[in-house]
Amino acid sequence: MADHHVIDVGGVRLAYQVSGPPDAPPLVMLHALGEDATDWDSVAPVFARSRRVHALDLRGHGRSDWPGEYSLQLMRDDVLGFLDALALDRVDLVGHSMGGIVAYLLAEDHPHRVVRLVLEDVPIPRPREQSTPTRPDGKLTFDWEMVLAVRRQVDTPDAGWLERLDRITAKTLVVAGGPGSHVPQEGILELARRIPHGRVVTIPAGHLIHKSEPMAFTKTVLAFLRSEEEPRPAQEA
Predict the structure, then answer these.
(1) In 2, 74, 103, 231, which residue has its Cα 20 to 30 A from 157's Cα atom?
(2) Is residue 48 part of a domain?
(3) Which long-range CB contacts under 8 A does 136-142 form with residues at least 24 apart?
């Protein structure tokens, strides 16, 4: 059973769930756009058997503050502040989709803080055709203004994000969703190639790998987290 907490990071209240042995290696999990920490509920208990799992609600999502100011860089800074506030010096970091972008931005700019990095079906930071998302009906569990701000950045990412991928020192596993995913898979393969210690595994489950194939996802990620072997060059599995 996860414990629920809220912590102030630079004036923004971040909600998070924590589970697993207090003395176990820390694992931080970052959700996709429009989700929250509960999105990991199907897999977090498995990781919590051997890891101290911290699943965040990123700003503008869930029980965290909706401050009205949004960017992927601010989310990165929130996560860094979260690590500092909890005295988590070096962590394993898992990010899905948008959460994966936040994760690799942190690993680029603060490489000494990330031991192992897992990127689940994360798009490579290249410009793509822009589109205007349609707001869903009813009450939302996230700030719609956040969605618009983040989508603009994903559509037209900072060129430096791509250039700085080679600064990542963490052993990195890129988990691709295969042809059923809306994320271009050739870009995911390139993402893994550009990270010095990156490798890629494909679990053909579409974009929501950890939900569609939770057993395959946890088995693959745990094997990677536990591995002490030198990483291999990126290759499609």
Answers:
(1) 231
(2) yes
(3) 141/34, 141/36, 141/61, 141/62, 142/33, 142/34, 142/35, 142/36, 142/60, 142/61, 142/62, 142/66
